[in-house]
Amino acid sequence: MKIIDSSPGSTSRRFILSGAIWFLAATAVGLLAATELVAPEIVKQKNLIFPRIRPIHVNTNVFGFLSMLLVGAVIYAVCRLCQAELWSERLGNWTMWLWNLAVVTGMISLSMGYTQSHEYAEYDWAIDVMIVVALLLLTYNLLQTLKRRKEQLLYVTNWYVVGALAATLVVYVIGNVMWKPANGALAGMTDAEWAWFYAHNIFGTWITPLSLGLCYFWIPRETDTPLYSHLLSMIGFWPYFAFYLQVGTHHLIEAPAPAWLKLIAEINSVALLIPVFAFLTNQWMTLRGNWWKIPDNIVLKFLFAGTVFYFLTSTEGSLLALPSVERITHFTDWVVGHSHLGLLGFSGFIACGAGYGALREMHGRIWSERLAHLQYWLMLVGIIGFTLVLDDAGSIQGHAWRNGEVVYRVLPELMQDYILRAILGCFIVTGAAIQVYNFYKTTCPQISPADERDARQSAEVAS
User: Fold this and answer.
1) Is the Cβ–Cβ distance between 29 and 106 less than 8 Å?
2) Residue 462: is its pLDDT beyond 80?
3) Fewest CB atoms within 10 A around its CB: which of 222, 313, 358, 461?
4) Residues near 406 by Cβ (< 8 Å), separated by ≥ 6?
């Protein structure tokens, strides 16, 4: 295998494969973390204790699995929409290796206890620099590709890609306080506000726009149907970026943050339902008359599930931003369940479906459709069950604490939920392993199971 491959499509393919590998790594670490909550005595090494592997799980999911798989699928989509090859496959390959290096270094450093102790911003300054450089290289490569496009129309997918890259470069530098490399932090309440501005926006300005853009690309493509409404795509795009940037403070409603900042966060959190429902209406109306295609089309199957989870995540997120609801749910496992519903349920399903779509078009087939459908059901059962048990645990915690109960006396009541959480994690890890195997076999010049059956049947007929 060439370290730097300049052949067309190599950057997209390698980003997608890297994302799949990180999906398996991140979920395996997450399963270990879930098991530790049930049986902490199984861990004998300090590198694997919960306070270290939990940030490894979170950051590897965000920057390894979702970022790399979504970027790979986005590169493929942008090139098809521009009717042009990626401006520089060599630069794209270097970007891919730099991004992988950042994630590997992050896993090692976090396991050794080096952390900046901010949600989604635990990576040290040197790793932050690698990610920013990779983002700059990716932005330059895609902008040059857009500049050389043969199709002059800038389709909505390209809007989301450019918006995500521009916003994330600013959000990442500001949120990680990169001008203070020693600790990556400010002081007091300002630091808390800064941290949640970043923590919410790394999902809102990076992961979510890439996922939404891929839905706009793949759903009309797989249904062979024009996008339902250009107007709805604009309503879904511009208010989204206008509202989302100010919602982070809704995590600090119970903290001594300025009242006006809390009010802005609460209003914008509810207002976000406008672009969310505009997007969902556009996608589901595009699917109108094509619902029958979903069960057999693995790309549509994953993406449609992703849009349903987007509806659930966004609606729940707006409710959780209300003070009357947050008094029960904040600091509980309800928030953990909400995060998993968004990262794995919404973005994760879209990333997997888009990855299958891109590899299928690059290589002419998916190695095993059956395995892909099995992965879908394993992930679906896993994430639905995961969310339900964490919501149950969060309800127990929130109501107990509100009634004056102390933490340690609530723990025995959570044991059943935590055991189920670990069991359901096995479903997700198995699905991730299937995806790695299926992606790898798809990219290898080998005969698929369907081709093997056809060849066997032909031989039987000939004999």
Assistant:
1) no
2) no
3) 461
4) none
- DSSP letter assigned to residue 345: I
If asked whether residues 275 and 183 sit together in one domain, one would say: yes
Residues 207 and 179 in one domain: yes
CATH number reported for the structural domain that contains residue 41 in this entry? 1.20.120
Among candidate residues 191, 208, 218, 239, the one with its CA nearest the CA of residue 359: 218
- For the cut 60, the answer to whether the pLDDT of residue 172 exceeds it is yes
Residues 6+ apart with CB under 8 A from 207: 62, 66, 67, 70, 343, 347
Kindly give, in sequence order, each residue whose CB lies less than 8 Å from that of residue 262, ignoring residues fewer than 6 positions away.
Answer: 249, 250, 252, 253
- Same domain? For 160 and 272 the reply is yes
Query: Which residues span the domain enclosing 171?
Result: 155-286
**Residue 173 φ then ψ, to 5°:** -65, -45
Confirm if 144 and 88 have CB atoms less than 8 A apart: yes
| Cα–Cα distance measured from residue 171 to residue 129, given in angstroms and rounded to the nearest whole number | 14
Say how many CA atoms lie within 13 Å of 143 toward its Cβ: 11
70 within domain boundaries: yes
How far does Cα 366 stand from its chain's mean position? 22
Residues 6+ apart with CB under 8 A from 2: none
List the Cα angle 381/59/62 in 5-degree steps. Answer: 60
Q: Does 128 share its domain with 263?
A: no
* Count of domains for the chain: 3
Give the pair of three-digit tokens for residue 166.
Answer: 């521009």
pTM: 0.94
Of 26-35, 353-362, 403-412, 450-459, the least confident: 450-459
Smallest Cα–Cα separation from 1: which of 444, 458, 455, 460? 444
Contact 239, 163 (CB under 8 A): no
Three-state DSSP class for residue 250: helix
CA distances from 122 to 23, 35, 55 (A): 19, 22, 7
Q: What angle do CA 217, 223, 427 make, to 5 degrees?
A: 75
Cα–Cα dist 70/209, whole Å: 10
Same-domain status, 141 and 176:
no
Question: Residue type for 377, please?
Answer: W
Using a 10 angstrom Cβ sphere, with 0-12 exposed, 13-18 middle and 19 or more buried, the burial of residue 232 is buried
Give the mean pLDDT of 119-138.
Answer: 96
